[in-house]
Amino acid sequence: MHGNAGRKGEERAGSATPVVVVGAGFAGLEVAKELGRAGIPVVLVDRQNHHLFQPLLYQVATAALSAAEIAEPIRRILRRYPSVEVLLDEVMAIDPQAREITLATGRRLGYRFLVLASGSRTSYFGHGEWSRLAPGLKTIEDARQLRSRLLLTFEHAERVDDPLERSRLMTIAIIGGGPTGVELAGSIAELSRFTLARDFRSIRPQNTRIMLVEGLPRLLAGFSDKAARFARERLERLGVEVRTGSMVDHIGPGELGIAGERLPVGLVVWAAGVGASPLGAEAGGRTDKSGRVFVEPTLEVTGSPGVFALGDVARCLDADGQPLPGLAQVARQQGLHLGRGLAAMIKDGKALQPFVYRSRGNTAIVGRHAGVFERGRLKMSGWFAWLAWAAIHVYLLVGFQHRLLVSFHWLWRYITYERGARLITFRDDTRQPPPARDAANDRERGAAG
Amino acid sequence: MHGNAGRKGEERAGSATPVVVVGAGFAGLEVAKELGRAGIPVVLVDRQNHHLFQPLLYQVATAALSAAEIAEPIRRILRRYPSVEVLLDEVMAIDPQAREITLATGRRLGYRFLVLASGSRTSYFGHGEWSRLAPGLKTIEDARQLRSRLLLTFEHAERVDDPLERSRLMTIAIIGGGPTGVELAGSIAELSRFTLARDFRSIRPQNTRIMLVEGLPRLLAGFSDKAARFARERLERLGVEVRTGSMVDHIGPGELGIAGERLPVGLVVWAAGVGASPLGAEAGGRTDKSGRVFVEPTLEVTGSPGVFALGDVARCLDADGQPLPGLAQVARQQGLHLGRGLAAMIKDGKALQPFVYRSRGNTAIVGRHAGVFERGRLKMSGWFAWLAWAAIHVYLLVGFQHRLLVSFHWLWRYITYERGARLITFRDDTRQPPPARDAANDRERGAAG
């Protein structure tokens, strides 16, 4: 009762922030910027202190870029907007009736409008137990851990004498044939074929077996058939085994199950799916099976007045009634639209307009000189699409310094085949190879001595 | 018995590697390179996969550089020497009689000559319990953790309403007034005065209280009195409180004790001392009180034939009978000397020569435009010494790419006062401020609501 009275007191006193934005991804940042530009008080809450340029995260995981090159402090981005306050905190609960959120530090914040832009997380489709064995790729820590595990598979293989165990360690499976899976497979193939080729004495990294496993009949579901065929052909040229129409039914320590077959593997990477942040449901909205909350054309959560959802949190339909994909450009456009709309509503009382998505094109890369780019009828693949991919991504990087650095690293890598960020930073769970197999090896060595 | 027989069997079979080098720091790398140049088989063992450019580690800790810019994969550095094998592993035991080492993976390696170049670690002079509260700075992980803790103190202070608690959080103490402590204090002062100045709404980062605590009567013990006075004056101009002649006698959660006085602090950084790696003692050598092993002028461990120690592991005397300091240039010169000497001995039977150290000068920086550089009678401080410091450090960076990147970052920082690597990557122990004080704050807020 005391807590409730306190909350009501706050509301009566009009202490609620006009807009609380949750998440500083592509969507949330745009909302905060537009409202900041209009001088409207905003509190932006994020669990991290940095905005992450997710489309290039796989390059951190494969040692091509450093984490700091694709992450920008949120405070720096929003520094010029004095009405925007940034809070490093996490939303634990939403009370849509009282219009109040509770944060992990115990703090409570009242709001007039709440914008949920908290993105998505790796989803294992009900197999949560796979998360430890097949890491996903959503955060900087994920990328660093994947990079360490990836580089450690080669280190472990170099130390092992048993040829069977060595070939197990040098088998890498990527689950999921969307853009992330395709880009990861291509990048890991180039890492092992070119960058690491001369660095080891006992193993030949260029013989690494790399598998890309996809449940659907073809790669790159969001692209044309032609792009999918191009990606497959280019990956196979890099030595990647592409297995489409293959459902993963088991992941165990050092073991991957595909349609009943059990394969010994050294590393499994999960790029197969994401689920929406649970905040949409927490705000009282109805969600689809991947957790996205249903929204009105204005991006307002259906049935929760004053609450908006955008980016990966929202199930927003396009003109054909299909849900929009979880792309950076969708999130960015929604953020821009809602930010401007809220500013006009708060300042001038104007009604919100429905959101209309305008695709700027879809792009992914397979490796050196091999990209796909599609926009409406325009469908490109190969060298020019690869350049277009690089130009778009450099352009979209938030800070000017990052653009220069990333361009420099790419140019360097292009010329030398080197990768600058080959750091293994140990974590307990990645330090040692699976103990059972290794102990067996030591016994063999001992007996032979 | 079985194990012993196995070992003897290996030795009889002549399977021992001519030279095993432990540690890929400045000393170990030079030994491996010189032997590799001569085509002599070498196994280089290191716990990390990268060589770390330690003199710039404080810049990673203060968000100025990325980890990958000062770390280079050992395999890449030694790639061109086919006789050099790199093992990612850790030495657990040395048997100088059997001339054999045991690694963390259980593997055993015989050697003809063993080179110990495993460096030093943070030492708390018998106060091991301080390590959790006052992190040191020796590894990439240390630097990342310190960076996160440093940036989090500002984030926590921004969230707190109680002015006393806020000023506690915004008090940072650096223990140790050697080059690392001075450089850390200067860099943290510049971070809070310039880089973060406009990023917060509730706190003023430029009001951060920064203390540099040193037990001796003055800073920079390895430098002249003049340099020490210059450093103190420049630090004070940056707003750093310099406390010389002050012994730390207590470190508790949020609390620092200096000569009986208890100060509330938000962050304590330990830059006060290092102790040698314990491998010198493990090899049977006699050690001094900081764990360094006594060596002959040839760098051979006294009383352990065939075992050599260099860099921070060795207690090596100069012409005046004083132990050489733990500097990169000492380690590098020793590595070069021993590598060439061992190559000449193994190939041509030549006797080892005594090592003579030639100082290339001592340098440290206090902040923008403020460095000290001393070599023999030449003693510089100020703008030119600051440039000399930067030029020397860029020159010494191992990879060409790193030189370009670090130069670029420094130039960028010089012009914009920005720092590129302001990443907080959460660890459980750094995520929340000390709970007791924070809970008190929440109660206060609750009562006021």
Automatic annotation (TrEMBL), chains A, B:
Tagged with keyword Flavoprotein: yes
Q: Does the keyword Glycosyltransferase apply?
A: no
Residue span(s) of domain FAD/NAD(P)-binding: 18-335
Q: What is its EC number?
A: 1.6.5.9
Which molecular function terms from Gene Ontology are attached? NADH dehydrogenase (quinone) (non-electrogenic) activity
Q: Which family does it belong to?
A: Belongs to the NADH dehydrogenase family.
Its recorded name reads NADH:ubiquinone reductase (non-electrogenic)
Give the species.
Answer: Chelatococcus caeni
| Upper classification of the organism | Bacteria, Pseudomonadati, Pseudomonadota, Alphaproteobacteria, Hyphomicrobiales
